[in-house]
Amino acid sequence: MGLKKRLKGLLGDDLVDDLHGQVKDVLEHGLDRHVRIAVTGMSRSGKTVFITALTQHLLASDKGESLPFFALSSSDQIISVKLLPVDKDHAFPLQTAVQNLAAEPPTWPASTTGLSEVRLAIRYRPASRLQRLVSDIATLYVDIIDYPGEWLLDLPLLHKSFEQWCSEQRELFALAPRAALAADWLAAQAAIDWSQPVDQAQLSILNREYVKLLHLFRSEQYGMSVIQPGRAVLPAELENDTLIELFPLIATKPAGTLEDNSGYRVMEQRYLDYREQVIKRFYREHFARFDRQVVLVDCLKTLNKGQQCFDDMRLAVTDVLQSFNYGPSGFLRRLLSPRIDKVLFASTKADHVTANQHHNLDRFLELIIADARREMQFEGIETTCMALASVRSTEAAEAVLDGQTISCLKGYKKASGEPVALFPGEVPIELPTEKDWHSQRFRFVDFAPRKLPMQQLRPEHHIRLDQAIEYLLGDLF
Ligand SMILES: Nc1nc2c(ncn2[C@@H]2O[C@H](COP(=O)(O)OP(=O)(O)OP(=O)(O)O)[C@@H](O)[C@H]2O)c(=O)[nH]1
Ligand SMILES: [Mg+2]
Fold this sequence. Notes:
By secondary structure, the chain is of the alpha/beta class.
């Protein structure tokens, strides 16, 4: 009789299976682990604020005060957390962000214009007795990168031919608000015979106009999400580089054989160069290896701006998520060919609504990410939806209206800094009707941050950030 069978006779099946699993685990893993978290979100969705708050709370998590639902912290197992050095040109500007949030008056971080990275080492006392036989102390290394949301929208181009990209853009440019805003640009494109050689000066003019249109589409007024190529609006080191002189051809592909110097082929070549030299490099260096993912979505923005913004956001999120690798991921696979095995969809800025609306915000988020989530679940990976606020900037208050007590919020308006107390309204749990979209029913206000102290962080400084951390990391200790 094998040892395992004999032990089962003595100790029972469950206990022996459990022990067997743990021994295998320890032998395979050692106790130290490494996890890379993908923080994914369109521009202004809250990535930088999330990374700042998560890092700041984790650095203080040995005190066990601000993250009650992060079990490792609340059970006093954390010995210490520290930042690890990264290449100084790419260090996440944590200090600046933390100082600005702690200033008087506090301010939000600026929009991100380049790539940066945070590396954390969480040193802790393992809970299981078996793990403690190997070592009393273990370390989890956590890597997170931050980047401009605009660049994310380039990832889907990796899997698309120029023709596919143009055909998708054709559909988008047929819809409001793009169709009307781009009428002149579309007419100028249509007047060109793309099967013939095109003057470079003419291409430059069309490109300049296209970039202006992209800025308009993503402006506060329209809030569109599908802005491609991303480097056209945020070039960073590619400023003035011809690599980013790229726009889609909205007219259908010219028939017949096309010469290499035809307008169509010239634009197609630019697309291929951009894909190869900009997107592929970025993807290979920074996006190919992730173990866990947070997808941040600003649901309230879509409600404020209306159906076109909602549809565009849904399309962008679904498209972007197809660029990541999903699948169940054991330790060895994580080492050899990492895949994302757990995804947290988070509706950010939950402090813009009253606490009784958080559940609705979870449900509304599900509407936006339904298609993307279905595909992930098909791959057998774990997902969840959660409304959260990385830096809680409002306080709950009550008001009496027509003899009834209603829940309100108090805070400072982001735009003017003036104090406000308001009833922000309800979050729908179904897609708003045509009438609701047009009734200006949704007017969620942006708030200035409430001061986030550098020391003595408390649970009331965030909403559910601890649950998010527990979901993302809890099973790795
Ligand atoms: N009230 C509140 N507002 C938030 C929170 N997180 C983000 N915001 C708001 O959202 C804005 C954008 O947040 P960022 O973290 O800079 O967004 P981002 O995704 O990094 O944006 P890009 O760098 O442009 O891609 C902030 O300036 C705040 O107005 C939050 O937890 N609470
Ligand atoms: Mg940012």
